Structure formats: structure tokens, C-alpha cells
UniProtKB/TrEMBL annotation:
Its EC number is 1.11.1.24. Monomer. This is thioredoxin-dependent peroxiredoxin. PROSITE patterns: THIOREDOXIN_2. It catalyses: a hydroperoxide + [thioredoxin]-dithiol = an alcohol + [thioredoxin]-disulfide + H2O. Keywords: Antioxidant, Disulfide bond, Oxidoreductase, Peroxidase, Redox-active center. It comes from Pedococcus ginsenosidimutans. The keyword Oxidoreductase applies. Thiol-specific peroxidase that catalyzes the reduction of hydrogen peroxide and organic hydroperoxides to water and alcohols, respectively. Plays a role in cell protection against oxidative stress by detoxifying peroxides and as sensor of hydrogen peroxide-mediated signaling events. SUPFAM superfamilies: Thioredoxin-like. InterPro entries: AhpC/TSA, Peroxiredoxin_AhpC-typ, Peroxiredoxin_BCP/PrxQ, Thioredoxin-like_sf, Thioredoxin_domain. It comes from the Bacteria. Residues 4-153 form the Thioredoxin domain.
Length: 154
């Protein structure tokens, strides 16, 4: 399956976060836009850099009515360790069987379990931006902010 594109309807999901609380896309969107970022592995160097950049830009995202939500195939326990170590303070969802990654077209068979990809999802579940970059960890949050109409400070 190809990755979803701007204009596509984001697939609904319900997954546990790092505390075990079930989170659905519909419920997350009740608070505004969702910046859903898929990352290959909690606590790895690149994923830590990416997630920390989203953490550091939470206020800017909130100012434009959006919240970051991380998702990987790591267990709930691994997500909890990741959040605890890095003080991420955002939902980190456990897609242990990869069903959501498959639905979003980012599941892999080789290298890492998922592609590094970010989907900016409007409250009506329409995808407004897709960011794919395996090597530029800061690009995901910066491009999401730009897509949401926020200035990106450098």
C-alpha cells in the first residue's frame, strides 16, 4: 500500500498510549489538529532527536490548535520508558501489530519496522500535509508547523 497523501481521509484507530490509556483518532481530533508522527524505534538516537524536537515545539503547535502524537510498533512499556527518559509529555501510541502503520502506508518489511513519516491531520480527518524524511529529524516538526500556518523559528 502506498503512503497516504494530502486530501486523503486519515484512517481511524484506537491504540494504547504510554500509560495504557486507549486513544482514538476521533477523540484526539476533538482537541484540534493532530500531527501524527511515525518513528521506527523508541529510545533510538534518531527517534529521540525527532521526538524531542516535537516536544520542544509543543507550545508553537498548541498556538495553532495542534498537538503532536507519536506512534511506533514499540510496546506500551517501551513507550513509557521513552516518555520517562525524555519527558516528552505527549501521547506515544503503541501500534504493536503494525496495523495502523499498514493503514497509513508506512509499514516496512526491511530495515526498520516503519518509515519515518508525519501526517498533519485536520479536525475533519483530512490529511493536509505528509512529511517523509529518514535523515532530517527536525524537518518533520518544522514542516508540520509550516503546514499549519505557524512561523518556524530557527
Amino acid at each position: 500500500m502506498k503512503s497516504l497523501r494530502p486530501g486523503d481521509l486519515a484512517p481511524e484507530f484506537a491504540l494504547p498510549d504510554q500509560t495504557g490509556c486507549m486513544r482514538s483518532l476521533t477523540a484526539l481530533l476533538e482537541e484540534g489538529s493532530v500531527v501524527l508522527f511515525f518513528y521506527p524505534a523508541a529510545l533510538s538516537a534518531g527517534c529521540t532527536k525527532e521526538a524531542c524536537h516535537f516536544r520542544d515545539l509543543r507550545a508553537e503547535l498548541a498556538a495553532v490548535g495542534a498537538q503532536p502524537v507519536g506512534i511506533s510498533m514499540d510496546s506500551v512499556e517501551a513507550q513509557a520508558r521513552f516518555d520517562g527518559k525524555e519527558s516528552l509529555g505527549m501521547p506515544l501510541l503503541s501500534d504493536a501489530d503494525g496495523a495502523v502503520a499498514t493503514a497509513y502506508g508506512v509499514r516496512r518489511k526491511y530495515l526498520t519496522p516503519v518509515k519515518r513519516a508525519t501526517f498533519v491531520i485536520a479536525p475533519d480527518r483530512r490529511i493536509t500535509e505528509v512529511v517523509q524524511s529518514e535523515w532530517s529529524m527536525d524537518r518533520h516538526a518544522d514542516a508540520a508547523l509550516k503546514a499549519l500556518g505557524a512561523p518556524v523559528a530557527r
